[in-house]
Amino acid sequence: MKKLLTWGATGLITTAILDPLIYAMLDQPIPWLRDLLMFAGGVLCLYFLIKFRHEW
Fold first, then answer.
1. pLDDT tens for each residue of 9-55
2. Statement: the pTM of the whole predicted model exceeds 0.70
3. Residues 56, 38: Cα–Cα separation, whole Å
4. Residue burial 11-30, b: 16+ Cβ < 10 Å; e: rest
5. What CA–CA distance (Å, rounded) separates 56 from 14?
6. Of the candidates 36, 38, 52, 51, which has an alpha carbon nearest to the alpha carbon of residue 9?
7. Helix H segments across 1-56?
């Protein structure tokens, strides 16, 4: 579970940061809602990692 949350946090936050850059280079509109949801999911995974760090 710890590894899944770690991968989720790093993958979602990294994708949320890099996705607007890719869309800007392709001259396409940036899907802000999707990027904000990905970032929020990554932060939630990070929160669960910190909250339950002693239980796993």
1. 999 999 999 999 999 999 999 999 999 999 999 999 999 999 998 88
2. yes
3. 25
4. ebbebbeebeeeeeeeeeee
5. 25
6. 38
7. 2-25, 32-51
